[in-house]
Records
---
Amino acid sequence: MVISPDSLNRHLTLMKSLGATFVALDQWLDKAQQGADLPRLAVAVTFDDGWQDNYQHAYPILKQHAVPATIFLVSRRINTDWQFWPEQVLNLLVNHADLLEHPALTWLSKEVDACGYKRQSALSIEQADAVIARLKSFTDEQIEGPLQEAREAIPALAELPRSRHLLNDQEMQEMQASGLVTYGAHTQHHYRLNRLSDSEQLRREIVVCQEDLKAKGLNTLPVFCYPNGDISQKGEELVKEHYRAACTTARGWNHSPAQPYGLRRFNFHDGNGGNALTFLATMGRPA
Ligand SMILES: [Zn+2]
């Protein structure tokens, strides 16, 4: 899921050479919803989760090309050294597989066994991905809780260095001041919304998230982004009530008149966009 700065630079250059007009997401929505003429090839750049590397690596390239972008933030994780559970599990399986024998990680080693992988020896990234895919049948809390307990029970795990990977206030303000970067809501805690049974919690993740961002003085578009692309009917009703559009993980172009609560995107990483050919093939492939 990683894209190198060189690839991002190449993508923007290539899109420009194809005649693309880079638009801010809200301006495109304004035009689409008013039925105004849209550019033949309009491109809106988005980033999910609010990673610090958006500031370190993507922002200089956006500035160089004067391309606007929207970053979807997880409001209660800003400024923290919090790690998404798939990152934590990946690190455990690839770099610290010896710890799987500890009783506090039995729940995880069971999943490794179920995939038919040998415990204790380090897993490859592909193998770790398969284990993470299995874990997605649980709720986020069902994984984050035991991970936290394991950190408390296993000193070697607690001592792993945790550096900050998410944006902080100063970085967000600096990008906003450039006029290029706007923000959108991506829940408070990055819980998958189709798995939340508590309706008050669902409301906080969807509605209060936007209030959190505004309270920070961020230029926040009324656009939501579903974590992992997942949403329930009740969640979608809340999104429709409080936002004017939502981004999904579905791949493809958005033809006007757009489905504003089901905006499609192309999720580029070096695996599907590392060179011009794969980049164009990814965009040309049917959804
Ligand atoms: Zn996300």
Note: Strands lie at 21-22, 42-43, 45-49, 69-73, 181-185, 220-225, 245-251, 263-265.
---
Amino acid sequence: MVVIDPGHNPGNFRHTSEINEKVDVGTHRKECDTTGTAAASGYTEAAFTLDVSHRLRALLRERGATVVLTHDADRPFGPCIDERARIGNEARADAAVSVHADGSAAGHRGHHVILPALVKAGSADTAPIVGPSRTLGERIAAEFARATGSSPANYLGGGTGLDVRKDLGGLNLSTVPKVFVECGNMRDPDDAASLEDPAWRQKAARGIADGITTYLLG
Ligand SMILES: [Zn+2]
């Protein structure tokens, strides 16, 4: 059982007051969701994450996995980040992957995978998932690079393609192995050209699927 979480929602841009409502992420209260970024062309991160998530779901189903999406743009906005985590938890997912693209400065290029830090605060306790999430993230980063030819991010993670964060509710509140995949930087023209190319998105989905598969087969 794999839960795929398409980052943001195309409708978030029209529901800014709702998505700005704060939710409890254990360490602090944080906005329900955000609009996400966009390329200079106007191609949005939310459209990108849905497309890659659909491709990823198809690949995993072909391989026999049961797949649940946290949303399919079938609701006007959200879900909130706490609900995104809860969907994976209640499904008792073997792996949960949140699909994103970054909104960093031009010149910042490449992909990275965000791993949960050790967080114990309020309703958040990542101790049981830090280890398996790192393994999941390492597998995805390696297979993503192989499938796309993309380099690890040149602006964080020291060239490893891995970053560890304690401020993301979707990771803090997860009780199942979970990572975020930042497939590239939408604000960099060269990365954006890849992110906007359907053939590249298919490679990205295959890389993520290969990483998940490798992780699940142990
Ligand atoms: Zn995002």
Note: The pocket of zinc ion is lined by residues 7-8, 36, 45, 100 (CB under 6 Å).
---
Amino acid sequence: MNKIVIVGAGQAAGWAVHTLRNQGYAGEIHVVSNEDHVFYERPPLSKQVLSEEATLESLNLFSIDQVDDFCVIWHKPDHAVKLDKAQKTVHLESGKQLVYDKLLIATGSRARIPVSAWSSMEHVYTLRNIQDCQQLAQHLKTAQRIAVIGGGWIGLEIAATARKQGKDVDIFEYGSRLCARSVSPEVSDFLKELHEKAGTHVHLDATKLHLIEASNKQVEVFNADSSLPLFDCVVVGAGAEIAKELADLAQLEVKDGIVVNEFGQTSDLDIYAAGDVAIHPTLGYCIQSWANAQNQAIATAKSMLGDLTAYQDIPWLWSDQYQANIQILGTYQPEQTKQVVIRKTDENQISFFYLNEQHQLINMIAVNDAKLVKLAKRWIANSKQLDPAQLQDINFNLMKLK
Ligand SMILES: Cc1cc2nc3c(=O)[nH]c(=O)nc-3n(C[C@H](O)[C@H](O)[C@H](O)COP(=O)(O)OP(=O)(O)OC[C@H]3O[C@@H](n4cnc5c(N)ncnc54)[C@H](O)[C@@H]3O)c2cc1C
């Protein structure tokens, strides 16, 4: 094998390249990216980079020297538009055609705009990449009234960042609670309280939102027929669309994302997928998280070189909002949950444990307790049986349960 093509240059692509070279692969690596940046991570885009507490350079996954040493053949900015499985060729918008021995699709996802008319409004933003972040950060310098549409993780982080800058912030969530797809009702309540205590207005059940652009480009937001004072800036954080078109066109097996086995292989064994775009092999749906993109890509890159490495990581993601570092371990599975235990050490530190019938941990949300998350990863990996009374008792040292 002498030629690997990777489409995308985000978290998954970067770690795939790093792994390929680390494992001694000396052949060609072609990377196609429709952004003009080298491998970078996105989490700070809604946090420190948006507030300009961190620089754009801090987003780089690797140093300039490391990237040089990867000896990547770049095709950027360019867009992969077609995949010909039979000819093992990727067609680019520029007209280039790249023949591969093995292909990795790491195209991630993009921000979803639920109403297409909103895209043409000048002061309505989404946040997915560096360019989006620069534009939004620029506007936040002068805007005072901010509407955030979508009460998921990215929407809540943007709201917290803006509120910390002293902006007046309203969050509009379509559902009846925040982050409903990934956490339980009690965690949604915790999040709502966190934002309301900070002075943000949270509007739930906002199912009939209507936006009108005023002549000065401010935006009027109608929520269930009542209108609020004009907003200077609207940010839509209403979920992501999986960038799976290449696989769709090539008729690979695709559901909500690209179907892969535990080695990252798609229904065509020379084509792999990793990161947001790939369905998690054991959970059966796409996990959109930094750690998933990185670790699935590492395992997949090893498998591409013949060192079959199964990806079985327990999902883990984090979110920073105000003073709260929120870590989510495992997945929210209401049907499997037999007991919920809440451990509140103090005002700033609280953990939610979800146990199955055998008293094993299947999901945990920890606020400001990274050490406990590390330990809980071991509990899940070892299917440890836990005593709910000990979990709840703040005088019991959980570190004893190693
Ligand atoms: C604002 C923001 C904040 C986040 N915060 C957190 C967080 O706090 N914690 C956490 O765990 N996760 C967070 N995430 C999620 C995490 O960043 C993603 O899960 C991760 O970036 C996925 O990596 P990826 O490589 O799969 O995709 P991406 O990073 O999206 O990279 C895919 C790249 O492929 C390019 N591309 C797509 N199609 C083509 C094509 N046809 N041709 C060429 N190039 C193409 C895209 O433009 C993009 O550059 C956040 C995401 C965002 C946007």
Note: The CA atoms of residues 315 and 335 lie 18 Å apart.
